[in-house]
Amino acid sequence: MSTPVFAPADFFDLKQTDHAAIFHGVIQAWEVVPKLKSYLEENLVPANLGRVLGESEIGKNVFIGKDTVIEPGVYIKGPAWIGPDCEIRHGAYIRENVIIGAGSVIGNSVEIKNSFLFNECQAAHFNYVGDSVLGKQVHLAAGVIVSNLKLTGDFITVRTKEKIVSTGLRKFGALIGDNTEIGCNAVLNPGSILGRRSLVYPGVIWRGILPANAIAKGVESVHKRVN
After folding, report:
1. Quick one: DSSP state of residue 149?
2. CB 105 within 8 A of CB 83
3. Interior CA angle at 139 toward 51 and 179, to 5°?
4. Is 196 exposed, middle or buried (0-12, 13-18, 19+ CB in 10 A)?
5. Rounded-to-integer distance, Cα 93 and Cα 111, Å
6. Could you report the per-residue pLDDT of 159-192, keeping only the tens digit for each?
7. CATH topology for 8-224?
8. pLDDT tens digit string along 126-154?
9. What is d(CA 205, CA 226) in angstroms, rounded to the nearest whole number?
């Protein structure tokens, strides 16, 4: 039985990032997650082309794009590459090996670690995003948690109808396809796969694969999205 393929192009518009090169040679989209460190080491040239308002802590290995605004009280540990026209709001914590696409919003009490965000993502209020890939215009409502580590510490797997696929990763949060909406206080368990234009209702604790254009009202309640 062949291994199911979760190709990057099935979830993401690779034109909606300045860093499409990181996907070269990637077969399973989650393979980008462990590549972030080496990609940034090889390509990042620190610079600040944006505006830093008030006092923030910004590490040495950080690139901030043109017209991006860093509000007071932000901590960017780095390495991090933040695109143009972003808002990094008060109290945000951007940790190591993070790429944030143009026009994105990272808000108050949001922590992002080892993750790739395409253009125009929004994680604006009390979110955690670990070891994940978020497609263009993904919106995480207030309190959404993208969990990246199993309680047992085992390798994270993806369960399809045909077989269980090992990602080979101990830390992997989610693949969230373009234009997906995640409602307030939802939790995505490690290894979640969400197709393009999918929608997760507020408060849902999701595990597994959500097809494109589907609505998750609960793990056992999935409906086709019609608008």
Report:
1. B
2. no
3. 115
4. buried
5. 5
6. 888 889 999 999 999 999 999 999 999 999 999 9
7. UDP N-Acetylglucosamine Acyltransferase; domain 1 (2.160.10)
8. 999 999 999 999 999 999 999 999 999 89
9. 22
Enzyme catalytic residues: 125
Determine whether 80 is exposed, middle or buried from the number of CB atoms within 10 Å of its CB (0-12, 13-18, 19+): buried
Helix or strand or coil: residue 123? strand
In whole angstroms, give the CA distance from residue 36 to residue 96: 9
Which pLDDT does position 221 carry in this prediction? 62
What does the alpha-carbon distance between residue 70 and residue 49 come to, in Å, rounded to a whole number? 11
Distances (CA, A) of 127 to 115, 117, 169: 13, 14, 22
Which positions of the chain have pLDDT values less than 50? none
Instruction: Name the token pair of 121.
Output: 């993502």
Hey, what are 45's tokens?
A: 């040239």
Element containing residue 47 per DSSP (H, E): strand 47-48
Give residues with Cβ within 8 angstroms of 194, minimum separation 6.
174, 175, 176, 177, 180, 188, 200, 206, 209, 210
Report the amino acid identity of residue 93.
Y
- The CA distance from 113 to 106, in Å, is 12
